[in-house]
Design a protein that fits this description.
208 residues; alpha/beta; ten-stranded mixed sheet; 6 helices; 26% helix; 21% strand; globular
């Protein structure tokens, strides 16, 4: 697995192009968010999605899949967002939330039959830059490792997931507090009924 060192305050454009080329070719990356490192692939590439789901042991027909967008505008192309949901998203994003929304028909066939999609706009410049340069969302899955492997240690993650991902983006800061956050999962909010949002997992985000 190749590791690229990227700095949130000064993103290397050449490295960013390399990451996006990897995604477009069906590759899988490990990258930083505003919560923990995540595993991601091109959200419009069915083959890459199926591969990521196999690695994570996820059945895409039974589990809500989540995508990372660079903003609400991109998100609105892949999820159905009514006026009330838009107001909630605008108050809370970017931030450490996963919002479950009705899925749009523009998602690839692996989502077909799924009525919902998880939506993330993380407060992390690298994650948002990747989605922006890609031009559409990153399918994203949190990394689950054993207690001996810190979920925010890039070196240990590279060793643990060798052969499963092509690239690891090391920002050296996710989860350790240097960039203003500490480790923890996102808060998951069910917004399928935007007038009755329901927190289904407490995490770092405090819903506004």
């Amino acid at each position: 697995m190749k590791t690229l060192r990227m700095y949130p305050g000064s993103i290397n454009e050449r490295y960013l192009d390399e990451v996006v080329d990897c995604l477009r070719s069906g590759g899988i990356i490990i990258y930083p968010t505003d919560t923990l490192y995540a595993m991601g692939c091109d959200a419009l590439n069915n083959g890459a999605i199926e591969r990521l789901c196999r690695i994570k042991g996820v059945n895409p027909q039974k589990q809500t899949l989540s995508v990372v967008c660079d903003g609400i505008s991109m998100a609105s192309e892949y999820a159905r967002i009514d006026n009330e949901a838009f107001r909630i998203l605008r108050r809370n994003l970017p931030g450490p939330f996963t919002f479950v929304l009705p899925a749009a028909t523009s998602l690839p066939k692996v989502f077909k039959g799924r009525k919902e999609v998880g939506l993330r706009v993380p407060d992390n410049p690298i994650a948002m830059a990747i989605a922006s340069r890609l031009g559409h969302p990153i399918l994203s899955s949190s990394l689950k490792v054993d207690d001996e492997v810190p979920e925010f240690d890039p070196h240990e993650l590279a060793l643990s997931f060798e052969g499963q991902a092509e690239l690891l983006i090391d920002d050296g800061e996710s989860g350790n507090g240097d960039f203003g956050w500490t480790p923890g999962p996102s808060t998951v909010v069910d917004l399928t009924d935007s007038h009755a949002p329901e927190i289904i997992r407490e995490g770092k985000g405090e819903l506004q």
